[in-house]
Amino acid sequence: MLMFIIRRLLQTIPVMIGVTLVVFFIMHLVPGDPAVLLAGEGASKATIEGIRESLGLNQPLYIQYFDYLINIFHGDFGVSLKNSRPVLDEIMVRLPITMELAFYSIVITIILGMIAGIISAIKQYTLTDISVMVVALLGISLPSFWMGLMLMYFFSVKLQILPVAGWESWQNIILPAITLGAGGAAIVARMTRSSMLEVIRQDYVRTARAKGLREKVIIYKHALRNALIPVITVVGLEFGSLLGGTVLTESIFAINGLGRMLVDAIRMRDLPMVQGGVLVASLIFVVVNLFVDIFYRFFNKRIELN
Predict the structure, then answer these.
(1) Any idea which UniProt keywords this protein has (predicted)?
(2) Which candidate, 45, 127, 179, 185, has a CA 20 to 30 Å from the CA of 66?
(3) Which domains does the chain have, with CATH numbers?
């Protein structure tokens, strides 16, 4: 297990370098000059060129990239072009908010998705099964930003029982977490149903029933444990999707997290901030996938970790 973790951590190095390479060059292809945005309207060419020189933007792209890469290995993510603050400090302020939102969202995804999937599998081809799958299909189809606006309209504007925006109390968490977690819950429900149906048709489940074991014991102790492997994969991937989904959700609910920071940074062409934010989000996604692989072995000892 230890060697597996070490190998996976070493594999993250080329992945992270690839992320920095893609983000760096994509941001330089986006129209607009950061120096012009910083100088403001009506600034002289001399002022703009001075800003470009001070930021190193007049250097060839490959030199800018290698300088940036060397700084990252020294723990220096650069300085924000917007407020002149260290990028890493800005990320560390915003990241806990985004991680908290993603955590509550993934809890909703797992609980609602697995309960709905198990019920649907047990009640296969009944009205309950059809109803759950229709709701799951709607959850997958509806855009998260539309759902967020509708939740805000009904619960905040009409009923006035939850705050419209912000991140001050536990009440502020409810609507954004549901907005992010609903789509993932629908996917997990469909995967849980499919996996459970495959498992409960196995011979060992029939044997357990023939021995007279209670149905709850068969479902939750024998069938569910073996059906969790594909579900864990989906949950791991959904966590990565949640990190991407926070960009829209945080903007809708005015949450000062990493996603909203990235939106503002892209708008301002704040290259160091965008690159640092994407790099941290990518690293989190890689670590989550590492934990997913470890959970495989926990739920099924026959799986070899290579």
Answers:
(1) Cell membrane, Ion transport, Membrane, Nickel, Nickel transport, Transmembrane, Transmembrane helix, Transport
(2) 45
(3) 2-73 (no CATH), 96-256 (1.10.3720.10)
